[in-house]
Amino acid sequence: LNALAIKAGKAPHRIRGMTEAGLDRFPVEQLKRWGGPADTTNPVNNKPRPADLKPAESLLLMPCSEGKQPAAARAMDMYQGVMWQSLRTHSTEATRPKTVILSAKHGFIGPNEKIDPYEQRMTPESADQMLADVNAMADKIAAELGDGPIRDVMIVGGTEYRRVMRAAVAQLIKQGKIQKDASVNETGGAIGMQRSQLGAYLD
Question: Is it the case that residue 131 has pLDDT exceeding 50?
């Protein structure tokens, strides 16, 4: 995802998180692995966002974070990690896309759901457990979307989070909850790069 290109309405590179100047630093096989969807189960298409897009027509999938509030809070306020700092810096409740959170403990939850602080990491095994019931995952997200069309999706998080999120988005497209021609992008690279991508997406 070249987030700046997406904001400008230009066709982005198929390499998530890379600028044009940085591509020649990586071997071809690595670039292939970072490319677009390898099969039909990966909904990421790296399409530019529609120019007339409204916040309510976008879906932002955020991961939980290790840093949390010390007491029970709604999910949107619970997480204090750097990606969440970027989210709050670059958006407000009024300008923010519809946001659903993937918690390593709770699965997909809405931003206003009240939860207690917890310590649990997303592992390949826990991701596999979630993927075993993709319909349930999709239903949890759909409950937060309402009736309006979703024309744009941004997937944010580490490898296992994104793996689960992709599967849920693919299912939501099959169910018609997300438009088939929606732009679907994801962050990638080191955490600093992902923060920049998220910030550019939200600005």
Answer: yes
User: Structure tokens of 137?
Assistant: 């995952």
> Residue 160 is inside which H or E element, if any?
helix 159-174
What is the pTM assigned to this prediction? Answer: 0.80
Cα separation, 127 vs 202, in Å, equals: 27
User: What are the phi and psi torsion angles at 34 (to 5°)?
Assistant: -90, 0
Query: What's residue 31's pLDDT?
Result: 35
User: What's the sign of the alpha-carbon dihedral 198, 66, 74, 134?
Assistant: positive
Measured at the alpha carbon of residue 42, what is the angle toward residues 183 and 58, in degrees to the nearest 5?
30
Q: Amino acid identity, residue 33?
A: R
Strand pairing class (107-109; 114-115): unpaired
Query: Half-sphere exposure (CA, 13 Å, Cβ side) for 78?
Result: 24
Q: Are 62 and 153 in contact (CB under 8 A)?
A: no
| Residue whose structure tokens are 């929606």 | 182
Cα–Cα distance for residue pair 121/143, rounded to 1 Å: 25
CA distance 156 to 197: 9
Q: How far apart are CA 55 and CA 96, in angstroms?
A: 6
